[in-house]
Design brief:
Mean pLDDT: 83
Distance between the termini: 42 Å
Strand order of the largest sheet: 2-3-1-4-5-6
Shape: elongated
Pfam families: GGDEF
Number of strands: 6
Largest sheet: 6 strands, mixed
Protein name: diguanylate cyclase
Order of helices and strands: HHHHHHHHHEHHEEHEHEE
Low-confidence stretches: 399-403
Helix content: 55-70%
Radius of gyration: 33 Å
Strand content: 5-15%
Keywords: Membrane, Transmembrane, Transmembrane helix
EC number: 2.7.7.65
Number of helices: 13
Catalytic activity: 2 GTP = 3',3'-c-di-GMP + 2 diphosphate
């Protein structure tokens, strides 16, 4: 997989004018949007519910004062009252579903359906008041249409077709309910709605673009704060946090927790003779090899600093890990990184120490144990693996030693 840092930087350079990341980052962004917008969605739905109930109370007052006993009473009870009730039920149902987490990954779809019901019922009630000759209530349609652009977790690409569909619904409802004499006023309001939709769409575009930029910047900073920029492995900061989680889990599940420290042999000599750029390339190659040994969810490959690497292995056996580390030394030999100035061998080698965490162990004490095993490996001639319950250090692959 590509380095996340490179992915984020690439997206920043593209400026995402089309409001679309690459597939991997886009999935991240949409998930982030759904998670972070939940509170905003609830707030907006509550506001909509309060406003809707206020308008419903206003309807009841107007019914008692102006409609009851008139020719409009049947139309009010058969059409306007059910429309108000539908909007109320839609908003209430969405709030209950969100509180009980019924919607899950389909929450944005539930929001979309609710907003649509809310808008369409708002259009219908406005038309009915016009038809009953009780004033122009359609100016409120502008506010209703704005509900689509409120922060309900919809992206710009979802908002535009939704708004267009609601505009069509608005036009069809007017054509169905209003008389020809009222169409001139209707078209004037429709034109105003289109203009407002364009303005809100542009505002929505700018808002999402800003959100995307902040998302990528934050992810980039978070990733770089926890990873080594040269190799892409976790750094000491990430290791400390992950170690505490793994240690607590190991105590709870009565599992082992092992720390591997890998130190490249005579790497200062390598840098002195081949240059630091060649040294950086060698470190990156070693990191790629080590990363394959942290394939399980709780494992973590780390660059501790300089030419020193680490591997945190959860629920593992020391002897099995020792065999894998011997295989790692063989893979390093297979890289054929020439090191003709090494007193140990003609290619780059490493020494490895393994320590097992005890129940009361801390990061420092575990490092001290692993360092002690690493020094055993170095004292035994380097290119070795040493660890707990090992009477002797296990040698790496046979290499040609310099005379």
């Amino acid at each position: 997989m590509d380095n996340p840092s490179r992915l984020y930087r690439r997206e920043l350079q593209g400026r995402f004018l089309g409001l679309r990341f690459g597939a991997a980052v886009e999935d991240e962004f949409v998930s982030f949007l759904r998670e972070t917008q939940t509170r905003n969605v609830r707030f907006c739905i509550w506001i909509g519910l309060i406003l809707w109930m206020g308008v419903a109370c206003w309807d009841v007052a107007r019914y008692v004062q102006n409609i009851q006993g008139t020719a409009n009473e049947a139309q009010f009870l058969k059409l306007l009252l059910p429309a108000r009730l539908a909007g109320l039920l839609a908003l209430t149902g969405l709030l209950i579903g969100m509180h009980r987490r019924l919607w899950g990954r389909w929450q944005h779809v539930a929001c979309l359906v609710t907003v649509s019901v809310y808008c369409i019922t708002g259009f219908l009630t406005g038309y009915l008041y016009m038809e009953m000759g009780m004033g122009n209530a359609m100016a409120g349609s502008i506010l209703i249409l704005m509900a689509v652009f409120l922060p309900c977790g919809l992206t710009f690409r979802e908002t535009m077709p939704t708004t267009a569909a609601l505009l069509v619904a608005y036009l069809l409802a007017g054509w169905w309910i209003l008389s020809p004499a009222e169409w001139s006023e209707f078209w004037a309001i429709a034109s105003l709605l289109v203009l407002c939709m364009m303005m809100m769409a542009f505002s929505s575009y700018l808002r999402e673009r800003g959100t995307r930029e902040q998302f990528v910047l934050r992810r980039l900073l978070d990733w770089e704060a926890g990873h080594d920029p040269l190799t892409g492995l976790a750094n000491r900061r990430s290791f400390q946090k992950h170690f505490e989680i793994c240690l607590a889990q190991a105590r709870r599940d009565d599992k082992t927790l092992l720390l591997v420290i890998l130190d490249l042999d005579h790497f200062k000599l390598y840098n002195d003779h081949y240059g630091h750029k060649a040294g950086d390339r060698a470190l990156q190659q070693v990191a790629l090899v080590l990363e394959h040994y942290a394939a399980r969810p709780m494992d973590l490959a780390i660059r501790l600093g300089g030419e020193e690497f680490g591997l945190l292995s959860y629920a593992d056996d020391a002897k099995a890990l020792k065999l894998r580390m011997q295989h790692l030394l063989q893979q390093l030999q297979g890289l054929q990184i020439s090191h003709e100035f090494s007193p140990t061998a003609t290619c780059l080698t490493a020494s490895i120490g393994i320590a097992q965490a005890e129940a009361t162990c801390t990061t420092d004490s575990l490092f001290q144990q692993a360092d002690a095993q690493l020094y055993r490996a170095k004292n035994a001639g380097r290119n070795q693996v040493c660890g707990p319950d090992m009477d002797m250090c296990a040698e790496g692959p046979e290499l040609q030693v310099m005379a």
